Amino acid sequence: MPDIKAPLQKRALATRQRILDATLELLTKASIDRISTNAIAQQAGVNIASLYKYFADKHAILGELALAFGQRQSAMICDYLDAADPDTPMDQICDGMVDCYIDDSRGNPALVHLQRSLIIYPELQDACRATSRDISVAMAPFLERWGIDLSDRQLDLAMLCLGEVSTALQDLALSRDLSYDAEVIAEMKLIFRAYYQARATAQT
Description:
This protein is an all-alpha fold and 204 residues long. It has helices at 10-27, 37-44, 48-54, 58-83, 90-105, 109-120, 125-129, 132-145, 152-173, 182-202. The protein has ten helices and no strands.
């Protein structure tokens, strides 16, 4: 199937966005395996032919949502790190990164259900993971201050692993209802702190 190009006209862009928004809305009601392109088209108020004009299938829609979600979270964390003083205590920086991660989707269950969909379809996580490189770069002055020297590969792996842990714990925090469990968030912060403390200790 040939590549589907992004629309340039304002009306077409609006239609495309309605399809993305409709998918997020449906994700609050059902998992992606129970959502059809027909259901998405109906929710968006477009005919199925219009949907296929912009997306090959529902996984293409999900992939774009995953990329946008990853870019959004990375931007929030990078903005936080860029504004922070490298001399800020390690624990405070770790807690701040977790807060950015949580605050981005708190009160927006659609984003959390999107993450659950990525767990169901791991091949779609690549779009979201690709954005972690920006966080790696933003972390550099803090790692230097903490005496942590990691290769680019090690740093990328660290961001990947911490991101996977965060995704799993965020899902756990929502396993009972649609509000975050403060105790799970506290555990997430401890994991971030322990990781960087262990790295710093290992290089002293």
